[in-house]
Design a protein that fits this description.
This protein has 20 helices and 25 strands. By secondary structure, the protein is of the alpha+beta class.
């Protein structure tokens, strides 16, 4: 029961209540008022270039003006390092402080993901949090010391372009000293705080703690991992390009809703929105008055949160002394136990066998189990995120499968070892783990804390033949509370393919419970009970495995018209046909997609192809002209103009002859040398490297390209012009998707595409 209490504490005292039905004073953050913003913003998809996009922009501007703020927009073309071009329109407002102009930036983005996501969570929740938070702040009628910049970026979903033009061109960027960025990668759960800094984290963590956030959720392990991974938030741009420190606040639960048509106000958890508000208000009050120039640091801190809002931190300098102390105490206890005849060297070494068997077998069976699930449920492969609608049931059943394996393994070995001896091997393993993280992943060094409590358990086991069970459980609480978040969140964040990591972590936590269960007579009964729960959860997961209107199947369909060959095709990324797509793809069209230039970050490519009827789609006007040759370099220069004759959303240009461009300009923007080399040199390796440009259009502006090449080169371009208008083309006579289906996210979908080759010599 105490173990269940530890788990319950971890889940029930780390987030605020939504309080939707209560009347909240005007000078306080109201989740209900914030939710009204979400409902207004997320009625329809509002990606860059959509008809809803300017409506959302106008709504935000109007709300800011009603607060008495002077609003401005920032608009310009920008070509990012991934050769993505767009013309975002940021929304900005500034509250003047009494100080010297140093500014705190509150930021989020207001564009939704292409092509079908209403964007309630990502990032309508961020917009709503800032609008409601600033409204409540201004009700206090207090002039802050620091300026407060409100920044609602555009084109975040297609390449962080709004943040790029803010840092590069806006005069306010030089005043920004700190930023709070509100984001989402799901539709629920506790928002997690992640730092962005070019230096060390100490002063930022201390300032965060000083702000007295009521329910902080963060730890230095996630921060260490985050620093090693390629990050992709607006705040990353501010840090890299403007040396601006900041905090990200993002939630990830219900990851299956991320970027999909299910990212609606209905699916956004009210408690999650309340939690975002509980971050903003104390941090806004604190940093509007703090010294923002004094947040860079030359030292790092270990930090983590506990239930009831406790936030623990200590210096990296403690890592090595704590590790040495733990190893020394361990060795002293082993010697002490041997002298008291409570430990046996032979039995200690025997203790490694059940430990390694339980961890290895749990990991292998969990991995094999998920491979089996993918085999018998091929529809799971249609979930781009890698996290299925019934994913939480799979996490739960893997937990109980691992527990069952651990119980039965230690049941086999229980009578063959001293209780204290069999617990010594797990502590030795944990000390090895702590040594490795101290050397290579310092943010996880707080894992030494459960080890200290484990050493206390070992001391009690040596001193007492039958230790108090309640004491043994209480001493295992740190391991449960500190490791449980990773047991649950890693498969959500990284996909169910990482269920084996959950199994390993469960097995490692179980080791701290050996001083309790080692004295139970019938461990086999616990193994049977856990296996029974595993089977119940397995049947439950199976019950929710099918797609339905509540759990809609993602699918895809695009129409491509090849203007060179005068042929037309249907394409799909789907592995499985369904009742809607089967009418477009007869039998035998599987794995026959030849267009490999369209894919997602998850590696999805076209898998189905079939012939389509001819429909009329206005072709773009293309003008390629040779300019004057440079007499000094002998380079040939050309001008290429592409003018769409329809409302398009995306234009992609490829070069298929591996030409070395000497100069390249797009709408008067110069493409840097590293862009050109990275994007389309060496066409014989990966096809995406042939891509010169992706342009996300917001109107029918002519795309103007100028380039210079060597005299012997003759580039050949392939143009793909796409519009998310598949259902608007009446000639195609498409049936609407059934209610149990949604457009597949992360890929070019629901689009009509025109393909055309452009050559120097026709």
């Amino acid at each position: 029961m105490l173990i269940f209490v530890a788990v319950w504490l971890s889940f029930n005292f780390d987030a605020p209540q939504a309080r939707l039905s209560e009347e909240i004073p005007l000078d306080q953050f109201s989740t209900s008022r914030a939710f009204q913003h979400v409902e207004a913003i997320a009625q329809q998809p509002h990606y860059v270039g959509s008809s809803e996009h300017p409506k959302v922009r106008n709504y935000i501007v109007q709300e800011l003006q009603q607060m008495g703020l002077e609003v401005q927009t920032q608009e310009d073309y920008f070509l990012n390092s991934s050769a993505i071009l767009s013309k975002p329109q940021n929304i900005l407002a500034r509250i003047k402080g009494s100080g010297d102009g140093d500014a705190l930036v509150l930021m989020t983005h207001y564009d939704s993901a292409t092509h079908s996501s209403p964007g309630a969570s990502d990032a309508g929740s961020g917009v709503a949090t800032i609008l409601e938070g600033i409204r409540a702040f201004r009700e206090k009628e207090i002039q802050p010391k620091n300026d407060i910049i409100l920044l609602f970026t555009d084109a975040e979903e297609i390449g962080l372009i709004g943040a790029e033009i803010f840092v590069k061109d806006h005069p306010w960027a030089k005043d920004a000293q700190l930023a709070l960025n509100f984001e989402a990668r799901g539709s629920g759960g506790n928002p997690f705080m992640l730092l962005e800094t070019n230096g060390k984290n100490a002063k930022l963590i201390e300032a965060f703690a000083d702000a007295n956030v009521e329910f902080p959720v963060s730890n230095s392990l996630a921060y260490s991992i985050y620093k090693m991974l390629p990050n992709d938030t607006d705040l990353t741009v501010l840090r890299e390009k403007g040396n601006i420190n900041g905090y990200n606040f993002a939630f990830i639960d219900d990851h299956f809703d991320y970027h999909t048509a299910n990212d609606t106000p209905k699916n956004l958890d009210a408690e999650t929105l309340a939690h975002q508000g509980s971050y903003l208000m104390p941090l806004l009050a604190h940093f509007s008055e703090a010294d923002l120039k004094n947040l860079s640091s030359d030292r790092d801190l270990i930090y983590f949160n506990l239930p009831f809002g406790e936030f623990v931190k200590y210096p990296f300098d403690w890592i090595l002394p704590m590790l040495i102390a733990a190893i020394a105490i361990f060795l002293i206890l082993v010697i002490y136990g041997i002298r008291r005849d409570r430990l046996s060297i032979t039995e200690i070494f025997k203790g490694f066998l059940p430990m390694l068997i339980s961890i290895g077998l749990s990991a292998f069976l969990s991995w094999a189990f998920w491979q089996f699930c993918l085999f018998i449920y091929p529809e799971y492969s249609e979930m781009e995120h890698g996290f299925t609608y019934n994913g939480y049931w799979y996490i739960a059943l893997i937990i109980f499968l691992s527990l069952s394996i651990s119980f039965i393994t230690y049941h086999w070995f229980r009578k063959r070892s001293y209780k204290a001896s069999i617990f010594t091997a797990p502590l030795a393993l944990w000390l090895v783990i702590c040594t490795l993280v101290a050397l290579y992943l310092k943010g996880a060094a707080y894992f030494i804390i459960p080890v200290f409590f484990g050493l206390l358990q070992l001391f009690v086991l040596i001193r007492q033949k039958k230790p108090n069970r309640i004491l043994m459980v209480l001493l295992s609480f740190p391991a449960i509370i500190l490791l449980l978040p990773f047991i649950l969140s890693l498969p959500v964040a990284l996909g169910l393919k990482t269920l084996f990591i959950t199994a390993i972590l469960v097995s490692l936590v179980f080791l701290f419970l050996l001083p309790l269960f080692g004295y139970f007579r019938k461990l086999k009964s616990f193994a049977v009970l856990c296996f029974l729960v595993f089977n119940i959860l397995l049947f439950t997961a199976h019950y929710y495995s099918e797609f339905s209107s509540e759990r809609p199947k993602p699918n895809s369909l695009v129409y491509l018209k090849d203007l060179d060959q005068q042929v037309n095709f249907w394409y799909s990324y789907d592995k499985m046909e369904d009742s809607w797509t089967s009418s477009y793809f007869p039998e035998g069209t599987e794995n026959s997609g030849t267009e490999s230039n369209f894919s997602s970050k998850y590696g999805s490519n076209f898998r189905r192809k079939s012939s389509a009827t001819e429909v009329d789609i206005p072709e773009p006007a293309i003008l390629l002209q040779e300019l004057e040759t440079d007499t000094l370099t002998n380079w040939k220069s050309y001008s290429l103009k592409i003018a769409p004759n329809r409302d398009i959303n995306r234009l992609e240009l490829y070069e298929i002859r591996d030409v070395d461009f000497k100069e390249f300009r797009v709408n008067d923007l110069i493409a840097e040398d590293e862009q050109l080399g990275e994007q389309y040199f060496n066409m014989h390796t990966q096809r995406w490297k042939e891509r010169i440009l992706t342009y996300y259009a917001s109107n029918r502006d002519t795309l103007r390209i100028e380039f210079a090449i060597a005299p012997e080169d003759e580039p050949e371009f392939v143009l793909y012009e796409s519009a998310y208008d598949l259902f608007e083309n009446e000639e195609l006579k498409l049936e609407k998707r059934p209610k149990d289906m949604i457009p597949r996210p992360f890929v070019l979908n629901d689009a009509t595409i025109l393909k055309k080759t452009i050559r120097i010599k026709e």
